[in-house]
Design a protein that fits this description.
Bound molecules: 5-(aminomethyl)-2-methylpyrimidin-4-amine
CATH topology: Heme Oxygenase, Chain A
Helix content: over 70%
CATH class: Mainly Alpha
Oligomer: single chain
Shape: globular
Largest sheet: none
Distance between the termini: 43 Å
Number of domains: 1
Length: 227
């Protein structure tokens, strides 16, 4: 059994719950509040900056050139392909790249990325890939699912988001992460596999919290501090 098959059994109930989350449903049905969506995209932009650091750590810790190159390509894909989506949305409503980058990080964003970065720093290259796996793979999972919902791909505002995360290019990013974790874990003992499984499960919980942050931010008594 591939390690990713084992992981999928573990995370599937959590990932399926994303599809019932009001914010994710709102993107698929085209009903999510526009201000909430912009706030989410701004948080997601600063999230992706921190997430990219995990690829950089993985590349630095890799023991061979092939693994180093895969991490470098994933970093490139995030910064130059995925983050273009956020820059395009921001440009449409008059937010410059500089303003986008200066977005004050929410506590949820900070907690999630701090966890990923600390796991990547604490362990070997396998921790880096475990830390980013749920991010890439669950977005591809959500994108493919929402693409089947009536009108989701063509929605005037949210269609771009659904098209990006259901695209073959994005699926390739998720597949590269899956292939890498399967390769890296081939001869690992059970205690190490379990530790990696825990990272993937915990980041899947953080993903849920991120959707919750996107939906509920306006009701929070906290403010985002400057970066
Ligand atoms: C919070 C989050 N998680 C994952 C992804 C997909 N890279 C994302 N854009 N944002």
């Amino acid at each position: 059994m591939l390690f990713t098959d084992r992981l999928f059994k573990k995370v599937e109930p959590v990932w399926s719950s994303y599809l019932d989350h009001p914010f994710v449903k709102g993107i698929g049905e085209g009903t999510v509040d526009e201000d909430k969506f912009i706030h989410y995209m701004r948080q997601d932009y600063v999230y992706l900056i921190e997430y990219s650091r995990v690829f950089a750590i993985g590349s630095a810790k890799a023991k061979d050139l092939k693994t180093m190159t895969i991490f470098a390509n994933l970093l490139h894909g995030t910064m130059n392909y995925e983050m273009d989506l956020h820059r395009e949305y921001a440009a449409k409503i008059g937010i410059s790249n500089e303003e986008l980058e200066a977005t004050g990080p929410s506590s949820t964003m900070t907690a999630y990325t701090s966890y990923m970065i600390s796991q990547a720093q604490l362990g070997g290259v396998e921790n880096s890939i475990a830390a980013v796996l749920a991010c890439a793979w669950s977005y591809s999972f959500i994108g493919k699912e929402l693409a089947r919902w009536p009108g989701a791909l063509d929605h005037e505002l949210y269609g771009n988001w659904v098209r990006m995360y259901s695209s073959d290019e994005f699926a390739k990013i998720a597949e590269d992460c899956k292939e890498l974790i399967n390769d890296i874990t081939k001869d690992k003992p059970e205690d190490e596999l379990k530790a990696l499984e825990d990272i993937v499960l915990r980041t899947s919980y953080f993903e849920y919290m991120f959707w919750d942050m996107a939906e509920n931010i306006s009701t929070w008594p906290v403010k985002e501090l400057a970066r």
